[in-house]
Q: What sequence folds into this?
């Protein structure tokens, strides 16, 4: 998936504070430098930052016109998103969502001089007006920011939220971010800066009927997390997903797979990772614990599949214990229920 290097000069919105419910060690992203940019916090000099349990967390909400805007949506769609009733999936391409950019954590001090940790969460400037007028929408943005921080850095934040009388904790510096191109709407100027992605597939080898082939237990055991699937000279399956009752249904398009390939194919599922190795045709290593930009670089997905992966990332962990897979050879699909 293509990413775009975007220069951000955010303006302050408001600040909220919480506490960390468990300790964490956060891996920091190497800074993307431009000659005119100032880099704040420890990310320029350190690889990790420790967050102790109980430490005060400040979350700065800021605005920038270069952050991808949310898609067009009716008021009904926006309300469904705010209440958690509407989540984009395979059968709901019009689900309304809000892109945001989350900074690395940085250390600071509270009024009492005690250690605190600060995150910046940047939203598109068009959301500022509604956030100022609509308390429920403001709460929605805060919850989105909290969920994204928790997903990106693997620790929990208390929902007992305070509102310090400041617009921003610390200093608000310009910064550079890598943003997936698919988060920008069609026709957005940022899209014109990325070259079109082409992806070749092997020719159809054999056409079979629509027999459903269910995987055995050994097909759900494959390469370990320490042995990533090699995608050299392999096609990357198109990916989509949807909720089906209490199950997450993931569909991988594998049109060239035949019955003769199934015995050699392996599928490995972890709570936040999916690995497919189907030699010599397909390979996929999708790690949902990576940042958005890292997912795009590592999985090598098409733009459409990458958009699906980013929404899947924001769902619950995969249910590995009750997972099952169906090799639908005649349909050219691998269907995973987790």
A:
């Amino acid at each position: 998936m293509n990413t775009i290097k975007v220069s951000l000069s955010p303006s302050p919105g408001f600040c909220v504070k919480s506490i960390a419910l468990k300790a964490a060690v956060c891996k920091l992203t190497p800074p993307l430098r431009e000659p005119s940019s100032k880099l704040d916090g420890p990310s320029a000099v350190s690889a990790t930052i420790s967050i102790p349990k109980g430490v005060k967390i400040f979350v700065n909400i800021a605005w920038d016109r270069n952050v991808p805007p949310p898609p067009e949506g009716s008021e009904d769609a926006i309300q469904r998103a705010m209440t958690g009733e509407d989540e984009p999936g395979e059968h709901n391409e019009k689900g309304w969502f809000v892109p945001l950019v989350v900074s690395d954590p940085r250390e600071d001090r509270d009024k009492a001089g005690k250690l605190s940790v600060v995150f910046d969460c940047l939203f598109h400037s068009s959301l500022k007006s509604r956030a100022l007028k609509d308390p429920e929408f403001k709460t929605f943005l805060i919850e989105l920011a909290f969920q994204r921080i928790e997903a990106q850095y693997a620790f929990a934040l208390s929902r007992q939220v305070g509102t310090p009388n400041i617009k921003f904790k610390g200093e608000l510096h310009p910064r550079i971010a890598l943003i997936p191109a698919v988060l920008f709407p069609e026709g957005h100027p940022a899209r014109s800066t990325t070259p079109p992605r082409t992806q070749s597939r092997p020719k159809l080898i054999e056409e079979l009927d629509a027999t459903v082939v269910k995987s055995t237990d050994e097909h759900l055991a494959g390469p370990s997390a320490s042995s990533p699937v090699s995608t050299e000279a392999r096609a990357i399956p198109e990916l989509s997903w949807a909720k089906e009752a209490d199950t997450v249904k993931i569909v991988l398009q594998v049109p060239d797979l035949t019955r003769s390939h199934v015995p050699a194919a392996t599928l490995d599922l972890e709570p936040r990772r999916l690995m497919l190795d189907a030699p010599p045709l397909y390979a996929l290593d999708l790690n949902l614990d990576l940042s958005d930009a890292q997912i795009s670089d590592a999985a090598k997905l098409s733009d459409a599949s990458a958009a699906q992966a980013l929404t899947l990332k924001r769902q619950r962990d995969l249910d590995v214990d009750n997972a099952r897979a169906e090799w639908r050879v005649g349909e050219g699909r691998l269907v995973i229920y987790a």
Observations:
- Residues 54 and 327 are 47 Å apart (CA to CA).
- The chain has two domains: 3-29+47-86+96-191, 238-337.
- The first helix runs from residue 75 to 82.
